[in-house]
UniProtKB/TrEMBL annotation, chain A:
Organism: Oliverpabstia intestinalis
Origin: domain of life: Bacteria
InterPro entries: 2Fe-2S-bd, 2Fe-2S-bd_dom_sf, 2Fe-2S_ferredoxin-like_sf, 2Fe-2S_ferredoxin-type, 2Fe2S_fd_BS, Beta-grasp_dom_sf, Diverse_Oxidoreductases
Any one GO molecular-function label of the UniProt entry: 2 iron, 2 sulfur cluster binding
PANTHER family in the record: OXIDOREDUCTASE WITH IRON-SULFUR SUBUNIT
Keywords for this protein: 2Fe-2S, Iron, Iron-sulfur, Metal-binding, Oxidoreductase
The protein's name: (2Fe-2S)-binding protein
Domain 2Fe-2S ferredoxin-type: 1-76
PROSITE patterns listed in its UniProt record: 2FE2S_FER_1, 2FE2S_FER_2
CDD domains: fer2 (cd00207)
TrEMBL record, chain B:
GO molecular function: iron ion binding; oxidoreductase activity
Keyword RNA-binding: no
Protein's recorded name: Molybdopterin-dependent oxidoreductase
Keywords from the UniProt entry: Molybdenum, Oxidoreductase
Matching Pfam families: Ald_Xan_dh_C, MoCoBD_1, MoCoBD_2
Source taxon at top rank: Bacteria
UniProt source species: Oliverpabstia intestinalis
Residue ranges constituting the Aldehyde oxidase/xanthine dehydrogenase a/b hammerhead domain according to the UniProt record: 18-130
From TrEMBL, chain C:
Protein name: Molybdopterin dehydrogenase
Organism, scientific name: Oliverpabstia intestinalis
Keyword tags: Flavoprotein, Oxidoreductase
Single annotated GO MF: oxidoreductase activity
InterPro entries assigned to the protein according to its UniProt record, in alphabetical order: CO_DH_flav_C, CO_DH_flav_C_dom_sf, Diverse_Substr_Oxidored, FAD-bd_PCMH, FAD-bd_PCMH-like_sf, FAD-bd_PCMH_sub2, Mopterin_DH_FAD-bd
Domain FAD-binding PCMH-type: 1-162
Length: 158, 759, 261
């Protein structure tokens, strides 16, 4: 079947198998940041945005997002680098395999709630598993990033 | 120190956080054959026939292999130094399948669809045999997991396939029974730890292709490139000269990737077909056909006096190696050798004996802690129980008995503890958690109790007399260095940590150090990243190589300045002649070494250690326990670690935090449940629940450093010790809240609530 | 993995219904559960373009389209203020935000899953299911039925000044529940739904007067005894029955507190 979508700002029209999953589609289009970590929708590694909402691309049919906007970390490189540096400054990226999914979802959180509490951060990112970091360093990185953002925006206001 | 001791950002960090394509699947050739494995549905069976004709005819299928197609010599998949202590009991495919998940056939095809189709239509006729699913019954059972004649053990570890024994042994010091007779208090209990999964986020995966020289190139997510080369050579029956193994970035290992779990399948396919191939383990395969922790049942007998003095410890471990023997003979050793020495401050005698058995469940492998985790859950719990029994604060009992600096540890290969800040760790951790106020528990008045628990831990730093670390460092133009290592950064940051050491030794910014990771063709030999060895063993090699390279640089400078080396001093970006003030820059030296030079500005050094200095740690936890539902909420976990000099405080801290959370999962809810037919039911991340960020409380980590004289810059290890304290500390806190001891992991809310109801 | 041969974005419910009459065809909700199966689906039917992804509120009721996501349920102010946060509480432990952005209320209810938090929560409320052919029937009745070829179009939650609460017990925070419990007080009756027993949730009703007479603890014990439980890999039968008593008791006490305010 024929589908069309905007992937990272680029219009794509393509013939696909009806059962194709978005995860396999975006990887085939070079978006290798998107990982598969399980078959049961539990790990969050495959998080992408569909119409700016974070979803699991492992459980999304390409057919269903035809006509919609899809973004992966490849399309958000500046934001990823700006925020990611705070994770890296904690050494909390560790193996890095879960990072793209976690960073996508964190960016979604910041857009939805620019000033989240610790509890809100943990709740929002609960679906992003990480086996290396123990999460605490990620939390430190997120909080420092938010503080930096606040300061930066404060400076602009002044 | 300028660079060592600094929280330097990992060299690959920005590539990782921006999602660059740096992992095995990302860098694999585009046209790889898809490789998958058909697996046994039976726990013990002989294959009577396999019909693959129809499968081979599926369009797109390249090859289908069965036991009839593979070499018959046996090998082990354990990534260990040769001769491996693990028995040679594997074939790539075998007519005899020994657990649910054992490989039966390999299918390779153009795409996943045709491979899946082919897998479905392979017809296998099995002769189903009775299976050993209870490891207590394995030893001397008439059912043999490995009846085959060509089974062999290379090392004298007490292995005997005709008794289902992977290893057996005993060691000790003093007369344990005599001391026990003289003790006023005895604690005797048995503890059970299950075969937990590492559950690294990147499952096992490998791609293979033939290169221009007709050699098999293997790109794999592995901790042990050199061992992979040997194991593939053994498995395929081809010379090592025909194999090259390298690793890209690894999505976590924790020991899982210290065994050759996936590599043999695509290697066989590519070797046979000449075509590139790749295997990506599904999460289900990763959970059910891999290399988890050894299930162990550890019986502790502990003799003490009423005043709290611990006089003798006797440990017996029954370890379940499952269908194959990988890491069986070695993991078990740590259950005694790294639990008993914690009390060498007072011990008069000890004994440690063990049996490691085969059974018809998934075979075990190496998982962070490697037996020490199981042993320490037992011994630390027994010590906590002793404290409760004699009514003395467990903190005091430990202060009275624990190992301290300068003590000879008879239960630890007679090594002397030359660097030990365990006493300071314990004191600091107690202060951080507020032990004095919070021990043992407070009733919150709403059905909830807050309580605290504690445990100590030790591990090793590499395998003494066995592990080899190496570093190859060279000076390039512009005065920059290339460091080639065979150790494997699996997210732990060893590429960066070792570069920090180079920068420190060579007095240069870390940006001037390029690190080239593990590749059997280009790296100097290194046994690999496991056994908490890299910082300590490879780090020492880096130090040595830097020293040697400095000498060579100075010699080159002496030529340029036309003087004797002894007149010169290495000053980082230059070499100075002290008497005259003349100097020659490193850039000049590097450049001149590339024109008409006969002096290679490159140094290779190996390192191995006759000792394995233990890092030490104290972990304490505060929980809130719901007496009605049994729910345990972890509120606060404090850890104080002595890993010697901390090379990179950020990376060390995250190691601790990550290990603690893995340990919390193992203690409270990561469960291993088999069906009566031997199928593992925790076969996904849906049924095997690793902690989310909602499941841990606050983690607080500090360091109390000793100085290890044999380590680089005084460093010891940190990678494994960090997983050991949560199980005993949580079991202790749960006891303090409920009055109930739990001796089997995980300690679920059900066990707690039902225990309280029956109390 | 599920295999899909053809995919149809339905243009009308009638079209979807007709396609769905073929036994192996199926309507896709959030795809989360469906994709784990290994079935071969000749035609997958998508209801995404039928405007069924909204929650509408009027004086009498909430009308929740079947394609509404669990995340929408979680964040809907009206629904949560009306249910005292019970709806939000019932979905917030389900894996993660990205999962809940996909999972649909229709998929959750139509599947009649034993572990369903959503089913438990809505069973305690005065919830009706609007079926394309079958009309409106009470959720309790729907939950008892075997899945058929009809289409679940909407959930209707009727308003009655309910006081509601939702509780669950889990081995770890985002795991499937070991036991779920939804309680709602409306028009002098206490409705108690218990799910993940581990079979699907059922709802019992007692009068408010009876409750007041017996007290929360006694009633909790009495009710818990009426919910059959079994063991599975998450917990045993005995613990589940014990938990039922504990959670019902706590729920009743929370409702008592709401009444005091």
């Amino acid at each position: 079947m024929k589908i069309q979508m905007t992937l990272n700002g680029k219009k794509i029209t393509e013939e696909i198998q009806p059962g194709m999953l978005l995860l396999d589609f975006v990887r085939a289009h070079g978006c290798k940041s998107v990982k598969r970590g399980c078959e049961t929708a539990n790990c969050g590694l495959c998080t992408v945005f569909v119409d700016d909402k974070p979803v699991l691309s492992c459980s999304t049919l390409v057919a269903r997002v035809s006509g919609h906007k899809v973004d992966t970390l490849e399309g958000l490189q500046e934001e990823a680098a700006e925020f990611g540096a705070f994770i890296a400054n904690q050494g909390a990226e560790q193996c890095g395999f879960c990072n793209p999914g976690m960073i996508m979802n964190a960016l979604a959180l910041f857009r939805e709630n620019p000033d989240p509490s610790e509890e809100e951060i943990k709740e929002y990112l609960a679906g992003n598993l990480c086996r290396c970091s123990g999460y605490e360093g990620q939390l430190r990185g997120i909080q420092q990033f938010l503080a930096y953002k606040k300061e930066k925006e404060g400076a602009v206001c002044r | 120190m300028q660079v060592v001791g600094q929280p330097v950002m990992k060299k690959d960090a920005m590539a990782l956080v921006t999602g660059k394509p740096v992992f095995t699947q990302d860098v694999a050739p585009a046209d790889c054959l898809v490789v998958k494995v058909l697996r046994s549905p039976h726990a013990n069976a002989n294959i009577l026939s396999i019909k693959t004709d129809a499968a081979k005819k599926v369009p797109g299928i390249e090859a289908v292999y069965t036991w009839e197609d593979v070499p018959t010599q046996r090998f082990t998949m354990a990534g260990q130094t040769y001769p491996e202590p693990s028995p040679y009991d594997r074939q790539i495919l075998d007519q005899h399948v020994r657990y649910v998940g054992d490989p039966v056939a390999i299918v390779a095809g153009e795409n996943e669809e045709c491979v899946d189709k082919a897998l479905k239509i392979i017809k296998v006729q099995y002769e189903v045999l009775p299976a050993i699913l209870d490891f207590h019954k394995a030893k001397d059972n008439e059912i043999l997991v490995h009846p085959e004649e060509n089974w062999k053990a290379l090392c004298p570890v007490g292995a005997d396939n005709k008794r289902n024994l992977v290893a057996t042994g005993t060691s000790g010091y003093g007369d344990v029974e005599a001391v026990f007779k003289d003790c006023e208090v005895m604690v005797e209990e048995t503890y059970h730890v299950k075969a937990d999964q590492q559950a690294m986020m990147e499952t096992f995966r490998t791609c293979c292709f033939m290169d221009a020289y007709g050699r098999l190139n293997v790109v794999s997510s592995t901790q042990i490139v050199f061992h992979v080369r040997r194991i593939l050579s053994n498995a395929l029956g081809i010379p090592k000269s025909k194999i090259r193994v390298s690793k890209p970035r690894i999505g976590g290992g924790f020991g899982a990737k210290q065994s050759v779990v996936a590599e043999v399948f695509p290697a066989f396919v590519t070797w046979k077909t000449g075509k590139p191939s790749m295997i990506i383990y599904s999460r289900q395969e990763s959970q059910t056909a891999s290399s988890p922790r050894h299930e162990m049942e550890v019986t502790v007998r502990l003799g003490a006096m009423k005043n709290g003095k611990i006089r003798a410890i006797d440990v017996y471990t029954l370890s379940n190696s499952g269908a194959y023997g990988e890491h069986g003979p070695t993991t078990v050793g740590l259950s005694g050798h790294k639990s008993i020495p914690l009390y060498e401050g007072s011990l008069e005698a000890h004994r440690f004996s063990y049996d490691v058995v085969y059974s018809n469940v998934m075979s075990a492998g190496a998982y962070r802690g490697y037996g020490a985790t199981q042993g320490q859950f037992a011994v630390e719990s027994a010590v906590n129980q002793l404290a409760a029994k004699i009514g003395i604060d467990p903190l005091k009992v430990r202060e009275m008995n624990m190992v301290r600096e300068g003590v000879q540890m008879h239960s630890y290969y007679d090594e002397v503890s030359n660097s030990c800040a365990l006493d300071r760790c314990l004191e600091r951790a107690a202060k951080m958690i507020g032990w004095e106020d919070k021990y043992p528990a407070r009733d919150m008045g709403n059905g909830k109790v807050r309580s605290v628990g504690m445990a100590m831990s030790m591990q090793g730093s590499g395998i003494s007399g066995v592990d080899v670390g190496s570093a190859d460092i060279k000076l390039n133009e512009d005065g920059i260095y290339t460091l080639a290592i065979g150790a494997a950064d699996m997210g732990t940051g060893c590429d960066t940590i070792l570069a920090q050491m180079v920068a420190e030794c060579m007095m240069c910014p870390i940006e001037n150090v390029i690190v080239s990771g593990a590749d059997t063709d280009t790296s100097p030999y290194d046994s690999g990243s496991y056994a908490s060895s890299t910082t300590y063993i490879t780090g020492r090699a880096v130090e040595k190589a830097c020293r040697k390279l400095q000498e060579r640089i100075v010699q080159e400078a002496a030529k340029i300045l036309d003087c004797e080396s002894e007149e010169l001093e290495f000053a980082g970006d230059s070499v100075k002649r002290l008497a005259t003030g003349e100097e020659v820059s490193l850039t000049q030296i590097g450049t001149s070494s590339m024109c008409g030079s006969i002096n290679a500005l490159e140094a290779v050094e190996d390192s191995s250690s006759p000792v394995s200095p233990p890092p030490f740690m104290a972990g304490m936890v505060e929980i809130e326990l719901d007496k009605e539902t049994g729910h345990v909420e972890v509120l606060d976990y404090v850890a104080v670690v002595d890993c010697g000099t901390v090379i990179n405080p950020n990376l060390a801290r995250v190691q601790v935090e990550g290990g603690i959370v893995q340990g919390i999962g193992m203690a409270l809810y990561e469960n291993i449940q088999y069906s009566p037919k031997g199928q593992l039911r925790n076969n996904s991340l849906m049924q095997y629940k690793v902690p989310t960020r909602l499941d841990m409380g606050k983690l607080r980590v500090e360091f109390e450093s000793s100085y290890e004289p044999t380590g680089p810059f005084g460093a010891k290890s940190i990678g494994e010790i960090v997983i050991n304290t949560p199980s005993p500390a949580l079991a202790h806190a749960i006891y303090n809240a409920t009055g109930l001891w739990f001796r089997e992991l995980p300690i679920t809310s059900e066990k707690i609530a039902m225990g309280l109801l029956k109390k | 993995m599920i295999k899909i041969k053809e995919y149809v974005m339905a243009e009308s419910l009638e079209q979807a219904y007709e396609l769905n009459q073929k036994k192996r065809n199926c309507i896709i909700g959030g795809m989360l559960w469906l994709k784990m199966g290994s079935r071969m689906v000749p035609t997958a039917i998508d209801l995404s373009n039928l405007g069924l992804n909204t929650i509408e509120e009027n004086e009498e009721e909430f009308s929740i389209g079947c394609m509404t996501t669990l995340r929408q349920l979680e964040q809907h102010e009206g629904l949560n203020s009306y249910t005292n946060g019970a709806v939000s509480e019932s979905v917030r432990s389900i894996v993660g935000v990205q999962f809940r952005n996909l999972a649909t209320v229709g998929g959750s209810i139509f599947g009649r899953f034993g572990f369903s938090d959503v089913l438990t929560c809505f069973l305690a409320l005065d919830t009706w299911v609007e079926l394309y052919k079958g009309g409106c029937i009470p959720l309790a009745e729907f939950a008892r039925q075997k899945p058929d070829r009809d289409i679940l179009v909407r959930l209707i939650v009727k308003k009655h000044e309910d006081k509601s609460v939702y509780l669950s017990h889990r081995n770890s925070k985002t795991d499937f529940p070991v036991l779920t419990c939804g309680i709602s007080l409306r028009e002098g009756q206490i409705y108690t739904a218990v799910g993940a027993r581990p079979s699907r949730a059922v709802c019992l009703c007692v009068s408010e007067a009876d409750w007041k007479k017996k007290g929360s603890e006694a009633l909790a014990g009495e009710l818990a005894a009426q919910f059959p439980t079994e063991g599975n890999m998450r917990a045993g039968k005995e613990f589940r029955s014990h938990l039922a008593e504990v959670l019902i008791g706590r729920g009743l006490k929370q409702i008592e507190k709401m009444q005091e305010v």
